[in-house]
């Protein structure tokens, strides 16, 4: 009976901790993943490589072209954000930005 109570308490504690996690997207941005990316890939192909833990940072129409920007925040280097720009659902470019130290959330 005591083990059952400990098990229940452990499960509740894990659920509580999971609900307190940050709301922004965090991923592992490894060089092996980044090396698999190629210009012209679809959004689905990119998310198969990097995962679906992204935010849509921007979406707009520009000269009848649909522009969508996905952002991934690096789980290891918390001051790095990677942006992936899709033009008409094809990867056009990607780049990295460093977050100024005063904007990094303390966890």
From TrEMBL:
Protein name: DUF3192 domain-containing protein
Organism from which the protein derives: Paralabilibaculum antarcticum
Lineage, broadest ranks: Bacteria, Pseudomonadati, Bacteroidota, Bacteroidia, Marinilabiliales
């Amino acid at each position: 009976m005591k083990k059952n109570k400990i098990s229940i308490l452990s499960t509740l504690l894990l659920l509580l901790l999971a609900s307190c996690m940050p709301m922004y997207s965090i991923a592992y941005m490894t060089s092996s993943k980044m090396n698999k990316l190629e210009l012209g890939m679809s959004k689905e192909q990119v998310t198969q490589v990097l995962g679906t833990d992204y935010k849509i940072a921007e979406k707009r129409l520009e000269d009848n072209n649909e522009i969508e920007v996905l952002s991934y925040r690096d789980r290891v280097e918390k001051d790095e954000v990677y942006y992936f720009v899709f033009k008409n659902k094809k990867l056009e470019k990607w780049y990295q930005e460093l977050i100024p130290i005063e904007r990094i959330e303390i966890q």
